[in-house]
Please model this.
Amino acid sequence: MDMNDALQAFAALSQPTRLDVFRLLVRAGKAGMSAGDISESLNVRQNTMSANLSILARAGLIRNEREGRSIRYFADMDGMRALLGFLMEDCCGGCPELCQPVLDELVCD
Model:
């Protein structure tokens, strides 16, 4: 990930609804969620949600799959890993123990 991609991802996440969507999709995991279910869960109008989903998709943070007439959305874990990798690219300055608390926080229990 380069700086422009990272900036686009940060811009996408800097809006409260989009951050909520991303976190919701991370929690949904491999099952993902339909656009309607996302809108309903967050109490956001569908046309507003559609715009927010498009911004997150362009930023590489979510992906979608068509299921018949509906679209299911998923957190793009590769995009999230790339963003985290960008942030930590120069981490630690040769002292890995400095980064360990951050890495421990990222590990699922």
